[in-house]
Fold these 3 entries.
Entry 1:
Amino acid sequence: MDLRWLEDVLILLEERNLTRAAHRRNITQPAFSRRIRSFEDWIGAPVLNREVNRVSLDPALSEHEQEIRALTTRIRELRGNIANHRPSNVTVTLTSHHAPIHSKFPDLAIEARRHFPEVRFRLRAGNQRDCITFFLRGDASIFLNYEARSEQSPMFGASVKRAVCGHDRLVPVIGGRLRYRLNPDQRPPEDFPCVTYPEDCHFGEILARAERPFGTRQMSRNSLCETALSSGIKELVMKGLGLGWLPLSMCYRELESGEIVSVAHHFGHEDIKVVLYANTENKTAVELVDHWQTAFSLQAVD
């Protein structure tokens, strides 16, 4: 199997046209078609429906696009790891949704650098469901997760080590000119503009379950924007576009400086735990999680 065949297929899925795909691959259309036929010979099934004056993609190809992309990425990484292997270096892949990567991973990396100087990290960000898939599939040996008290931890089984390595909280905050539009008691009016999470993302699920005002579109009267990215919500809040819920670790500097203000005294907060999962088949991953657990003086089972 030639890696170029997978790359060809991905370009074909993007372009939906043989001529345009061949142009992007910088080869002639006949040569591109021969490579697609080679891919079909390898898998033992056609991926193109060839009719008179018309060629279309088989639906099975589109349905497995994400798996093809993941496989292509893994092959490239494997090729790079072998080509650049150094006995003294170890690369650990960690997966997490975006908020912990911004707010928690830098501290973990600094601590690891002090005691595991040979370790290098590869980060794979995604929504929580994607991260769990990466972890279970073996694409990552460590899963960094935020978990609310109101939700059940993922059940991975005996081959996975779990450790609570910190605590955080989701707080409602306001920035920019909106800081001066609060009621006399510092409570935002019900139609206050806000930036919300979708209910199908992790933080959206937490806030919806707790029925927190301004957390999701369904709990708001005036949601100006909806996004699953906490870093995006932070920037919009600081620009004064709306109230938003953020992890405290992501915005405490701005709270201390007065750039944003918290209204948690009116709407409360959501406690969340910083949890690490390690695949016990990866010795380095387990050693890292054990060290982080000790360094942050917390118990593996809370």
Entry 2:
Amino acid sequence: MNKEKTIELLNTLVMINNDRIEGYKTAGKNTKDRDLKTLFSKFKLTSKKCRRDLVSKIKKLGGKVAVGTKVPGLFFRVWSDVKSTLTVNDSKSILDLCEQGEEKVLETYRYAFDDASDHLTAGQQKMVKNQYSLIKAELGKIRLMRDNLVKASKNH
């Protein structure tokens, strides 16, 4: 196992969580919908915990932890769209964009444990899969909330 590859892979996940934290911070500040604010706040906390766990593993390997939101185009572009959507405060559109962003996050996680798992120890693989499951469950909440909005608008 190549330690540098492991650190690089874990840092990719750190940065995707940084993207997620910044995105949900922006979304939470700019929506008036209380339920969305609460949801986005919970999602930020999930990513902060994921990041803490990843940082711990990187430090144990003697690696330098990545900072910023540099994952090229994965999630950040979606959040640019969210910012513009937030100006019209359309909850369904916001949730649609959140769904797109979460799908990109999950793609990155799937890559980590499907295509690059030979760079992770069994414990690291377990951590990555657990984080994937948490984020996937949050994607389910986004979809449910969006679907409920659609149903409610059809009933009016």
Entry 3:
Amino acid sequence: MKIFLPATFVLFFINVLLAGSEHKNVLLICIDDLRPELGCYGVDYIHTPNIDGLAAKSQVFKKHYVQAPTCGASRYTLLTGNYGPARNNALMLRAKKLKNNKLSPSMPAWYKEHGYTTCSIGKVSHYPGGLSGAEWDDPSEVEMPKSWDKSEMPSGAWKHPRGAMHALANGEIREKSGNMDVFQSTEGDDSTYPDGLITSHAQQQLKTLTKGDSPFFLAVGFIRPHLPLGAPAKYLELYKDTKFPPIPHPNKPDGNTTWHESSEFMKYNNWGKDPRKDQEFATEVRRHYAACVSYADAQVGKLLTTLKETGADKNTIIVLWGDHGWHLGEHAIWGKHSLFEESLHAPLLISTPANKPASRSIDTVVETIDIFPTLCELTNLPIPSSINGQSMVQLMNNADKIDHLAVSYNARAATIRSATHRLIAHKNGALELYDFSAKDRGSINCAKQQPETAQLLIDKLKHHFSSSSFNK
């Protein structure tokens, strides 16, 4: 005998089943050149109420390190879960290989393959909007093929993504670095600079995604505090009376190191001043960098408010990630590109719905390359066997302390970070070892004084580079 159930009951039953297997959304927030100089990292002179508010509901990784101290290479590891070339065009090199070879899927491609709507707004990969070409808007030069359902960079008065990337207020585009001021503060609302447009576009996209039938993977990339340091005047006003602490270990290190002459910074118009020699100018640079951080923080706040207004916050994992650190005078460097701690240490927050696992600070060393598999496990997706990273969920679930190391590299050297030390090995055989448990807090090369520790980390670094996992 057949039993006919009312249609409303059938729909209710189906919805119950779907709710039990519902995939969580992902909101990935990328911030360029962001140091872990935030309230949630113990800094009391920076105004970042929105990021700090997110941190209060997140797992805060206090020792998160990127794989490379440059935008493109670091974003390669985030978006692929694999080690790659230490070059800004790393993803474009991968894109060319994809035309003829089957490579490990990118993170958005993996989510797309599993039924997610994937969307990128702003600077998520190296090129804002995900296209290359002369103005970074050539549709035939896709940085991440088969990854995004939509990838956009609103450019407004800046005309194209290249113009918006290195921009100052009201449409000023960098054509020659020396003709553009290294910092600026202009009256106006948040759309006076490009990140305001990115935010507005991302908010609209978020509203559209939350009305769809599929779970979403939305990545939003903010440009500031990348050079040039431009932000609306109201954010600089926050720091008019700020007393910044002295710059730690401000002198150029001795010996064979990855120190550089801050060429990216010095190419801009600095009005004939050098922050390595002029303390007043150095403080002014720090003030403008801080203003840019607060500007980026405000954009994060707007995005999170919109997420909450849609109601999707109850089923969305939020990741806030800095693509690398930035020197503000440490080791006499103003910029990134070194393998010192300041270039590689970056913020990482992961917030999960219903605060499970519970928010807390994690002092274990972790790496960017582990974010892809971590998100897979948190969203109940299989982890691709072809990626190098390992899930951090066990660590997030209050597991006993897990010993972990972070490996990073540039074209000239490689480095490994333990809980207490950083070893830098140069291609010419030179070694640097920094002890962060010592009084000098990692500012003096102690390779000769601690040969056993140096050798232990050398062996671990060699094993890492020779293992099959590194060469996938």
